[in-house]
Amino acid sequence: MILESIAIQDFRKIADRLVIDGLEPGLNLITGPNETGKSTIAEAIRTVFLERYKVSSLGGIVPRERPDGQPTVEVAFTIGGVPHLLKKQFVRKSRCELRVGHQTLAEDEAEQKLSDLLGFSRAERGASKPEHAGIPGLLWVRQGQTRDVRDSGEHAANYVRDALTQLSGGEVSGGNDVLIDAVQRELWKLLTERKRSPTGALAEVESRLSLLQQQQRELDAQKRQFDVDLTRLTVLQAEFDDAQRKKPWEAMQQKADEASKRAGAFAELERRHKELSQLIELANAEHKGLLQQEQAAVDLDASIRSDRQSLETAQVAVADAIAGHQLAAAEVASAQKACDEAGAAFELANAAVTVADLKAQAALHGNEIARLALAVEKAEAASAAVRDLAGQAAQVEIDAAKLQRLQAVSDQIVPLQARKDAALTRIEYRLTGPITIDGETVDGQGVVLLDREKTIGLPGLGDLIVVPGVSDVSALVDELQALEVERARLLLEMGVPSVAEAVSRRDRWKALCTEKAGQAGIVALHAPHGIDALRDALAQARGRLGVAEARLAGLPDVSGALPVSDAKSAFDTARVQLESARVAQMSASERKARAGAHADGIRVRLDMNEARVNDPEYVLRREERQAKIVEKDAHVKARTRELDTCAQALDAARLDDPAVEAQRFARSADIARGEQLERQTKITQLRAQLEAVGASGVGERLAQTAASIEQTESRHAELRLRADALGLLESILVEERDAAVASLRSPLTSRIGHYLKRVFPAGEMTVDDALTPVALQRGERHETLESLSYGTQEQLGMLARLAYADMLQAACRPTLLLFDDAVVHTDDTRRDGIKRALLDAATRHQILVFTCHPRLWDDLGVKQRHLPDLMATSQRA
After folding, report:
1. Is-contact 823 815, C-beta < 8 A?
2. What average pLDDT does the chain have?
3. Alpha-carbon distance 145 to 819, whole Å?
């Protein structure tokens, strides 16, 4: 198949008509920047061949800038030397026409012819999908899909297999697949395709059989339970009758009553034991309280003796503290006197420093006053000069815009005047009699310059009309006169007689402005904030000088003052000594106060305790308490002996706990009564259940279910036998087809190897049963396509498509290879191998390569066709 020309109108990015003709039968390179329409051209080729012309879902191909456009694609191509012309219109007024030689086909007939020629299937409805694309979907590669060779190969598998079968002379064809499909359709009625689990009639039979078997198990369980319940009823009835005769619960209740009587006596003994324990505990608490009170009295006697000794010691400490405080007070008075004398000397030294500072400030203020007075004088002189120069500049100021226009007009007049003089017709006359020129009498000799048409009257002869030789002299004269009028007007407005005088005035005005700016700079130098501010600063300096002189007059005589450092050092030393003396005095005061307070506290406590122990009532209560202590001790011992006797009796009674025995026998009596009542209830329930099951006819239903299971198992065996037979037949047919397909791999693998060695010299491509590449073998390394890098997958995808094209062409199938920006992720070395493979394939196939990297393909010896140039040529045509 050789594509000769393409014409595209109103298709996606191509709003105007684009025609690409003169395509080579071998390799064709179409280049252009991104988004210029390369992919649009490739998509237009796919659409015109593969898409149905009347599909309504193709509205996306209409250009956005031309929403009312009519997408149209027309291609001319040859197959086996027979010319073909295909034209399709989409979306609006959709139509299809195909001319094959001298035969013309239209609409659906034309599209069916295309699918038969190129090897693809038409979509039943809507847009074409990848599974419909067949051979074109394998050989026409979209941008970024070069690596997706497996999916497109699977969609074209039947066409490739038929071609390989034709080449090998074998018998593998689509007919085998039809038979397999027929067997599988019958098999899939009984088994699912993936897991081979039952479905359809087989699943229904298995489901019914499962339900019947479940029903049989339930009925059988009911029958067994009926027999068990009948036996159990007999046993329960016998147990009930035996218990009803013996009545064991009455004997248990009698034993419980006897144990309850013994439990009452045991409880009384426990109460007495508890009462004795509480009495003893109370007596012990009272005895302990009396002992604690007596111990407090003993402690009070010891405290009185200790306080008497402590008071004597505290009184000695108070006398020592008073003597220390008096000594510290004398030291503070001495230190205070020395500090006052050092402070006076330090103040006199500071006054001496202040006097020196004020004298220095007075000198500085005097210098500042002299400087400011001179600056005021110079600033006032410069300010007067500025005012004078401003007046002079105002007198000679001239309008710069008008001067500029005046100079421009004068510059235009000079060349115009020269052109006028050169253009005027010159007439020299020497007359013997008078004549008239435009009604004016002229005689003698002279010269007339004609700037426009003039009439010369010749007495007795008529008129002579003279026209200047230059046709535009009148316009030149008018223009010159207009400029002269404007110059005169500008001179009058500016008040100058000439341009030179105007320029002179402007230069004088600029000089005065410059001089004024210089004087203003002098003012700014001496008075940056103004002359008034300078005068204020002078007044302030004089005021500060007066203040300094007044402060000097108020200071004392400092002729005998010490240096400040010596005076400060002496003052600091005296102040530290005073502070130390005050701290020592404060510490002595605190010791004196603490010693006095301590002695007073001991004295108060001793007086209070002595008064308490000498109180007659206190003495009487102490004697009574001591007697009670002896009495309580004897009482506790007596109660303790009684408690021991009671405890021994309790220990003996606990060996046979009557309360527990009473509870045990009472519980046993209740349990016996409950068991008898439970037997009676179970007997009633079992009788009701047995009557209900007997009435339902469980035996008859069990027999009917067994018969249904036998029939269903027979049907299940029949369907399972059919499914097994179909599965066996399918596996035999598939094995035979796979064996035949395996024989077809060799020529395809060989052809792929022809191209593969140009890029991967030591590589071999593995092809699966669907005749699509699956892995690359390089030495000992076996790598699946999915595990390879993106660039390597792209390269293998292009080489595999070249091999497919060779096989299809050898089987007399039309081929056209189309690559849109392929092998982008490829280094220079591998790209060279790809180029050699393309050039080799181009000797057998027509190949269209679209790329936005023209420099990568400029060494193929093939003329590149630049898309912008093609568009410009199409628009000019």
Report:
1. no
2. 81
3. 9
